[in-house]
Amino acid sequence: MFSENAARVAVFISGSGSNLQALIDGTKAGILSAKIVLVVSSRRDAYGLERAAKENIDTFVFKAKKYATPEEAGEALLDKLAEHKVEYIALAGYLKLLPAELVKTYRNRIVNIHPALLPKYGGKGMYGHFVHEAVIANGDKESGVSVHLVDEIYDHGKVLEQVRVPVMPDDSPDDLAARVLKQEHKLYARVLEKLIKGKYHITNE
Ligand code: GAR
Prior knowledge:
This protein is of the alpha/beta class. It has helices spanning about 20-30, 45-55, 70-85, 100-105, 130-135, 175-195, and strands at about 5-15, 35-40, 60, 90, 110-115, 140-150, 160-165.
């Protein structure tokens, strides 16, 4: 089904994994010429792990605190990725900061999807419903999706693509989340494909 040289991708999750599902579906639809070879979860009970199991994708629950030092944790994760010959990493609702060594090793090959128009509503603690609540509380007229490269700082790396969505006057955070999520699912596989195909101008600042 996959060509021998399809890019090997690991997807990192912490929850439902609907973006993981969108990436899996993207590979099946031929939008994403990659093979998802590993799903890493920061939580044992993440529903995304079930999605992975259904597709026979290997999984790894990674809890940095289980290791004696952050360095050891980073090494264990890097070993796991190397074992699966992972070339690219897509964060899909992954809520932990990545080990520094991993960011270094995979520089410019890690993407994240964020449910707002970065640099607005980014940073530590700004995820999921907190983002949508803040957008509504501030009376913003639009929000959206950002896919960006990952560096050492939360939600900070170069933005590769954004899609805008309107905020309706009577939106609840859940309404807005659903509208944004729909666009996330359309966007993520396409951006990852472009990254893999070298379509972005990326400099090593
Ligand atoms: C998505 O909306 C994603 O953008 C967001 O978490 C949700 C995960 O949903 N990520 C962040 O807020 C990262 N800062 P999913 O598990 O169904 O893909």
